[in-house]
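Here comes just one.
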Amino acid sequence: MNYKDLSDLLHFVWSLENDSASQRRAQHGSVGERSVLHPTLVHSRAGMNRAGTYVAASIFGRRMSGKHTRTLSLNRVVKVCKSLRSTRYDILNRRSQFLLLLETILELAVRSGVVNEKDVSRARDVLRRVRGGIGKTRAKAGPSRSRG
């Protein structure tokens, strides 16, 4: 999965959540946003790698669509990842997943208008070079086991 696929998936799930919340509001009346939005259950085989990347990307995507856009920084990304790791051992334990998370956050920032495409092109180039370096290291080390 690449960052555009993950970004598309997040937007799709959020639209489903919003549609569902709108239907509940129509049926039960408007009783506040918090009382009608339900969380999405995220599950994978081990609940670490892909699920962890999805959950972290979702957290930041929601932050960017809300009032917390000014607090988004690499330091904040690391703090949230540490927090996730404290509640779910071994989550986001691979460099490639952290890079996917960073690429997805950049894509979500562009899509939500927090930054423009030109501002993130240099960061994307750096992430691509780092990702390329991971591929070379992995090829030297041999195949690895994949956990979901």
User: Anything to note?
Assistant: Residues 40-141 form one domain. Residues 3-28 form the longest helix (26 residues). The chain has six helices and no strands.
